[in-house]
Amino acid sequence: MARKKADRVKSTGSESGGGIVILKVALAEQKSLWRRIALRCEQTLDDLHEIIFEAFDRYDEHLYSFYFPRPGSRGRARIRNAVEYSSPEICEEPDPWGDDFPRNAAETPLASLQLKPGRTFQYLFDLGDSWWHEITVEETDAIVEPGNYPRILETHGQSPPQYPLDEEE
């Protein structure tokens, strides 16, 4: 399900529609393990999911969600009351409560999220194993450089195995 590098958006630097968003994605339990990622503003949260998948050396696709906490939320309410954007597969089924949640990550461009430097939000990969990540917005209008987006700009720390039990066997 993850896209190959050749399928990414090619940018020459002359397109209109904003600049580049730079995000720092850290594992919630190991904040010293992180990746710096650049995406075009018109790319979606699903594009962000796919580059995180690649950046952390994952190989087995799973469902995911992004959580954008509401201002002033603390503790458990930070996630419980957050605006949720999820993998398209989750959004295929109607919400039993009739709400519009979660929203489809594949239909949500970054530009629509009104990101600002310093803002943090959460990303959950694999609803069973619960790989939580904290994402920090570093820049929202970086210069567009030629090449494919999204792209991994920097890595810090070795990715843990997707299934920790695999290493023990």
Distance between the termini: 27 Å
| Tally of discrete structural domains | 1
Q: What is the topology, as strand order, of the major beta sheet?
A: 6-5-4-7-8-2-3-10
- Biggest sheet descriptor: 8 strands, mixed
Mean pLDDT: 85
Backbone shape: globular
Radius of gyration, rounded? 16 Å
Q: Stretches where pLDDT falls below 50 for ≥5 residues?
A: 1-17
How many helices in DSSP terms? Answer: 4
CATH superfamily: MM3350-like
| CATH fold title | Structural Genomics Hypothetical 15.5 Kd Protein In mrcA-pckA Intergenic Region, Chain A
* Strand and helix order: EEEHEHEHEEEEEH
| CATH architecture annotation | Roll
Strand content: 35-45%
Q: Care to count the β-strands? A: 10
Task: Report the CATH C-level class.
Answer: Alpha Beta
Helix content: 10-25%
Q: What structural category do the secondary elements indicate? A: alpha+beta
Question: What does the model show?
Answer:
The protein is α+β, with helices and mostly antiparallel strands and 169 residues long. Helix content is 14%, strand content 36%. The chain has 4 helices and 10 strands. The strands form 2 sheets. It has an 8-stranded mixed β-sheet with strand order 6-5-4-7-8-2-3-10. Residues 1-17 have low confidence and may be disordered.
